[in-house]
Amino acid sequence: MKLIPWAALLSLSTVHAATVYQQQSADYSVIHSQLPPLPTTSPELVRYDGEKVIEACINNTVDMQNTLDWIESNGWDLWKHPSTDNCLHVRLNQHNQGIFLQNLPASAEHRVFISNIQSLIDQQQKISAASVGNDTTADYHAHYHTYDEIITFLKNISDTYPDLVQLFSIGKTYEGRDIWGITIKSKKARKPTKLWTKITDYFQSSFNGKKKKEMELIMHGGQHAREWISVATITYFIDTLCSKYGQDKHITKLVDTFSWTLIPVMNVDGYIFTHTRDRMWRKNRQPTSFPFCTGIDLNRNWGYEWNRGGSSPNPCSEAYMGPAAFAAVETKLMADFVASRQHAMMYIDFHSYSQLWMSPFGSDCNERPKDEEDLTELSLGATRALKAVHGTSFAAGPVCKIIYQASGGSLDWTYAVANVKYSFAAELRDVGQYGFLLPENQIVPSGEETLAAVLFAAQFINEREN
After folding, report:
1. For residue range 297-322, what is the model confidence (pLDDT) as tens digits?
2. Average pLDDT over residues 2-6
3. What is the band of 26 on the pLDDT scale with cuts at 50, 70, 90?
4. What CA–CA distances, in Å, run from 153 to 111, 128, 209?
5. Quick one: what percent of the chain has pLDDT higher than 90?
6. What is the pTM of this model?
7. Whole-number Å distance between alpha carbons of 312 and 342
8. Average pLDDT, whole number, for the chain?
9. Rounded to a whole number, what is the distance in angstroms from the first to the last CA of the chain?
10. Using CB atoms within 10 A of its CB, is residue 418 exposed (0-12), middle (13-18) or buried (19+)?
């Protein structure tokens, strides 16, 4: 297995800082936890003093690929892959900033996108310290939340809407934590009771061979630990769908039509680690063959066209694909869960950042889905609905076309193997001003605009498939 040079390893600010403490426990006091007691002293937080995010725009395809390979070989943290703008973002410590700039192709244009990563982290932590986070009011969405607070939120939602919500776990992570989610399903969605509904179904079946079918929509956030806005967006969906059911006609109709399954955090261990130790952690917390490099990139570990390209065999890489498909506990759990849902019509994997609405395929840039027309029509409509809320523009298209080749991704597997026709991944706000450190005052706007896209998608599916 290819490993990065020791010299490069020493330059890895994330890895060398984070792994010093990887054997110590964080705050693991969640429901059904079977982990050992917490240590009596708190571990030191990883800091990013003096580190910057630099944007490099390179129009030449060969130069861009050489630059990406060079970044990978040095173990640097690539925040944003080049998309339609031909620009990448990379996080660099003070030592590596000069090396990077000196070795860019002559044609490259560059600028500093984030001048001090640690200052943004400090601001976010200071504001978040004021969060109580245990209610289901609008104030809840003014802050990012720990996993314990999210569990409390889900339990409160379940208790508040017992006839609408079912709380469940898809299984336990590598470190033994439950991955909690909820299904929002009205009594009408469970079993049609009105006479006219039964009559309509009868005539549809008799005259055109079609009968309204049970349909489920599956969405989750937090496959990559540091992408907090994806988690907050899912909790916003949950709160809004439940609180507006019976009040908003459009939402009520769609909740009556579909089962809505929402899982805020897929990568629970990694997400907790971003709160307790290292805000910039991306992967899960599963040990690898290299003792200094922990974690598998969950979104390179799914079983369709695994190891086809756009991932790394290097355990120290942020894009480490794992030793085998579904070697990561959390990826296998989510895949098994999706495969078990016989009526799943849509799957959306939420990420950040870049403002993209993506469809299959990512593993092969020459492969086209058989449902390309429907996927494209839905994607374009969803991004229009999203933009209508706050003016935020999203690009839409297949993963491999609008960003990069990425094999072992979730939406390729859910589409090609689990046969979920409408499989997508969405990269939420922003386009790089804050990157993964999106301010808390953008949680609600992000939730509002993204929910508009999701509601459009649900309506589209209902009309197209029923």
Report:
1. 999 999 999 999 889 999 999 999 99
2. 37
3. very low
4. 41, 16, 43
5. 79
6. 0.87
7. 33
8. 88
9. 49
10. buried
Same domain, 399 and 337: yes
| DSSP state letter for 140 | G
Mean pLDDT of all residues in 338-360: 98
Strand positions, DSSP E, 128-242: 165-172, 178-184, 215-220
How many domains does one find in the chain? Answer: 2
Give domain status of residue 1, yes or no.
Answer: no
User: Which uninterrupted H or E stretch holds 118?
Assistant: helix 117-128
**Cα three-residue angle 18-301-439, rounded to 5 degrees:** 50
User: What is the reported pLDDT for 196?
Assistant: 56
Same domain, 157 and 64: no
Q: Tens digits of per-residue pLDDT, 420-448? A: 999 999 999 999 999 999 999 999 999 99
Check whether residue 361 and residue 461 sit in a common domain. Answer: yes
The set of residues, in sequence order, having a beta carbon less than 8 Å from that of 99 and lying 6+ positions away, is: none
**Rounded-to-integer distance, Cα 326 and Cα 331, Å:** 6
Which residues are marked as active site?
Answer: 427
Residues 26 and 160 in one domain: no
Residue 134 is classified by DSSP as -
Which pLDDT score, from 0 to 100, does residue 187 have? Answer: 85
- Shared domain check, 69 and 49: yes
Residue 66 belongs to domain with CATH number: 3.30.70.340
Residue the block writes with tokens 């640690």: 118
Pair 423, 411: CB distance under 8 Å: yes
CA distances (Å), 348 to each of 30, 218, 440, in order? 26, 7, 23
CA 238 remoteness from chain centre: 16
CA distance 367 to 92: 35
In what helix (H) or strand (E) does residue 7 lie, and over which residues does it extend?
Answer: helix 6-10
Q: Which of 69, 99, 125 is the last residue of a domain?
A: 125
Q: What pLDDT was estimated at residue 151?
A: 99
Q: Which residues pair with 422 in a beta bridge?
A: 346
**Spatial separation of the C-alpha atoms in residues 57 and 329, rounded to whole Å:** 37
Place of tokens 């630059």: 67
* Cα gap 42→45, rounded to integer Å: 9
Cα–Cα distances (Å) from 167 to 151, 175, 443, in that order, read 10, 21, 24
- The residue type of 91 is R
Are residues 82 and 174 located together in one domain of the fold?
Answer: no
- Give the helix ranges, DSSP H, for 319-371: 329-340
Q: Same structural domain for residues 228 and 366?
A: yes
Domain range for 110 is: 6-125
Residues 442, 122 contacting (CB under 8 angstroms): no
Question: What's the full length of the chain, in residues?
Answer: 466
